[in-house]
Amino acid sequence: MTETASDRPTAADCLCCGTQLTGLFCAACGQRAGPQRLELRTLLTHFVSAFTNFEGPLLRTSLGLLVRPHIVVGDYLRGRRIVYTNPVQWAILTSGTSALIGHVLGRVGPVQIKVDGSTPEWLRRVIEQLGSNSSPLYVLVLLPGLAVAMRIAFGRRGGTIPEHLVVVLYGYGIGALLQLVWAGAVAWFGAPPGPAGLLPMVFTAWGAVGAQPTRSKVASVLRTLLAHCLWALLLLALGLVVFGICWLLGLIG
Hints:
Elements: H1 40-52, H2 57-67, H3 69-77, H4 87-105, H5 121-130, H6 135-154, H7 161-189, H8 199-211, H9 217-248
Helix pairs in contact: 2-3, 3-7, 3-8, 4-6, 4-7, 6-7, 6-9, 7-8, 8-9
């Protein structure tokens, strides 16, 4: 199909969706009116504003989850989504950032498990990986299992698995960032390392309060703790299955 002159956007049309502009921003998609030709200044402005604009989704999500995670989760689940960073993007960004910065600075993971000389070599390697800087990425892969456990713990009327996944991704995302900060406090100020491992669970429980407006805060927190126990049992069962398969195949002596 040949494009005609009338099909091409004019100076008064949005360059993103083609809707006629009536102001500085497009009423259909929200993109700011501007020149079609991309300049370095425009590119750098968009990059800097993503991190410094207090009205931007990323910074609003970060500050909101830090001080009012129940509000962020509640808003997102009730439809106020364009003002916040997508929970999947948020979890990938925060977990990746935490793992990358921790690796560059040589920081260890938030949870350390001691092993002795009798520990099998394969198990030692698994434990070392779980306690490494990459642990936030490993946990990220397992978070859908926690959403399933949340669904079980909260019951049929407590929301769907995708809704619980929003709570989990936001909670563990901000928890990964705070664990990185805590690791710096441990290295530079001698803070105790233990509580850092609880931060994701704390913020997940806090977010669950906003996702369950009809339940009491105590009930939401207790059910979140129950979900984590169920999640641990699911992971243990999965680990035993994997171990049994590896043993049968002769991969583990």
